[in-house]
Design brief:
Strands 1-2 form a two-stranded antiparallel sheet. A two-stranded antiparallel sheet has the order 3-4. It is mainly alpha-helical. The chain has helices spanning about 5-10, 35-55, 90-100, 100-110, 145-160, 175-190, 195-205, 215-230, 235-255, and strands at about 60-65, 65, 165, 170. The chain starts with a helix and ends in a 9-residue tail after the last helix. Helix content is about 50%, strand content about 5%. The chain is globular, with a radius of gyration of 22 Å. Strand 3 and strand 4 (about 170) form a beta hairpin. The protein has one domain.
């Protein structure tokens, strides 16, 4: 059944295939299947606590040319009436992009909702999955629009990293600059490898081999192939970029305390 067919069905006829778990009772799996969902839940929770704490801290996020990715772009001068940390004006954008990401959805559905926690393991919830038709899960369909607003923020992060190469009238290089550039590379791999990007560049085409539309479809197919290479490692991009953005912020925070640990190379 296609997504459009599922959407057109009345609520009374939505598929209820998961209303009764496919694997009730104890699982026959002998491996430590619970380790992965446990670690994912632990990392998600730890990152959420750290990011929220840093946003509330509203301090130690900018020193010299270096600006924390949690506070970029820094909008405090543009909205002086804003009573809270300027990070809250920004963090909802990457949060919405990651929360609606297809990979992350699988990860936290398994880790937090246990629905199901792993393959061939009984679900711990009673109500079945119905195509994300109900609130709040219907908001998952906004992933494409979250991509639209996340991309400009990523470009700004690239500018933040590049501008640390030239300031005070001369070129500079530091370990912190290299860390910021590495963070942008990982974030770019994650962002431009997402399913929404694949759809935009070529996935929306009905036929890649139709000769009547070759001039339009061939470039789209090539772009789609490029994005697919990133998409094939979407899970790895998702995790490495999550760690890199937190570590970059942490590095900048401590650089605000002691600028020497930026380790200026020239």
């Amino acid at each position: 059944m296609t997504q459009s067919q599922l959407t057109d069905l009345p609520e009374s006829k939505l598929p209820q295939s998961n209303a009764v778990p496919a694997y009730e009772g104890p699982t026959s799996r002998k491996d430590n299947w619970w380790v992965e969902p446990f670690l994912i839940a632990f990392v998600f929770t730890a990152f959420g606590i750290y990011a929220t704490g840093r946003a509330i801290e509203n301090n130690l996020y900018e020193v010299g040319p270096y600006l924390s990715p949690f506070y970029s772009p820094n909008l405090k001068d543009y909205v002086p009436w804003w009573p809270l940390s300027p990070a809250f004006l920004i963090l909802w954008i990457p949060l919405s992009f990651r929360a609606t990401c297809y990979y992350y959805r699988k990860a936290y559905y398994r880790s937090y909702f246990m629905h199901p926690p792993a393959c061939t393991v009984g679900m711990f919830k009673g109500k079945g999955y119905t195509g994300e038709q109900s609130f709040p899960f219907v908001l998952q369909n906004l992933h494409r629009y979250a991509f639209y607003v996340a991309t400009p923020v990523l470009l700004i992060l690239w500018w933040d990293a590049i501008k640390t190469l030239y300031y005070d009238g001369s070129f500079h290089m530091s370990v912190l600059t290299l860390v910021m550039i590495a963070n942008c590379i990982l974030l770019s791999g994650y962002t431009f490898g997402c399913h929404a990007c694949r759809h935009i560049v070529g996935g929306k085409e009905d036929c890649f081999s139709c000769p009547s539309n070759e001039s339009k479809v061939k470039p789209a197919f090539q772009a789609w192939q490029l994005v697919t290479k990133f998409n094939e490692r979407h899970q790895q991009w998702a995790w490495t970029s999550l760690f890199s953005v937190a570590l970059t912020d942490l590095y900048i925070r401590y650089t605000c305390v002691d600028p020497n640990i930026a380790f200026q190379l020239f």
